[in-house]
Amino acid sequence: MSEYMKQFKIQVASKIPGIKFQDKSGGELQLIKDGNVVAVIKDEKDYVTVTIKNNTFKYDKWYTKPEHLAETIKIYVERS
User: Fold this and answer.
1) Dist. CA 43–CA 27, nearest whole Å
2) How far is CA 61 from the centre of its chain?
3) What gap in Å lies between CA 51 and CA 19, rounded to an integer?
């Protein structure tokens, strides 16, 4: 797992109570809340893709730091 994904997990865990992680192969991480997969995060070298409800968003790691991505996920989880 990349350093980016490790930092991302720490940030998400500190911002979203009750979130769980399921590591998948190939740098893929599922975020689980209340037994449901709320997001799938994929590390793709220079980019991170986030899939939420069949919508995929691509973030450049250079501009999107783990704490910013975690905040985006937090907002989504709170609204869903």
Assistant:
1) 5
2) 12
3) 16
pLDDT tens for each residue of 14-23:
999 999 999 9
Contacts of 79 (CB under 8 A, 6+ apart): none
Helix then strand then coil, % of the chain, to nearest 5:
35, 40, 25
d(CA 80, CA 63): 26
Q: Quickly tell me which residue has 């998400």 as its tokens.
A: 12
Instruction: Please give the structure tokens belonging to residue 74.
Output: 């937090």
Taking only the tens place, the pLDDT of each residue in 23-77 is: 988 789 999 999 999 999 999 999 999 999 999 999 999 999 999 999 999 998 8
DSSP run (H or E) holding 10: helix 3-15
DSSP tag of 73: H
